[in-house]
Design brief:
Blueprint: H1 20-30, H2 34-55, H3 59-83, H4 94-98
Length: 102
């Protein structure tokens, strides 16, 4: 019988590039939903920034960048899905898939 580790730790995803947040904000500003998404991104970013200042940990900032990159990268597919008459009312919340932010 071999011993198996109880918890397997996976390496965290690589950190975003230093200018990733600024580039991401520019992408959001150019998006059709910028009037709704830009304030939401700024709120998420400022909250993560305050957390990072308090904890000296950049994880929250990295999570915001990854989350918003995912939203922008999938926005066209989501729009095409709903534009073709498919309902998105039975969808799963992003937080249920990615997990709640701290």
């Amino acid at each position: 019988m071999s011993t198996q580790p109880v918890h397997q730790h996976t390496a965290p995803p690589p950190a975003p590039a230093p200018a990733a947040a600024a580039k991401l904000r520019a992408r959001i500003a150019a998006h059709a939903a910028a009037d709704r998404w830009l304030p939401a991104f700024d709120r998420d970013w400022n909250s993560a920034l305050e957390e990072s200042r308090a904890t000296f940990d950049l994880t929250a900032l990295h999570e915001v960048v990854r989350e918003w990159q995912g939203r922008l990268d999938t926005a066209a597919s989501v729009h095409a899905f709903t534009a073709n008459g498919f309902a998105d009312t039975d969808s799963v919340a992003l937080e249920d898939v990615l997990g709640a932010r701290r």
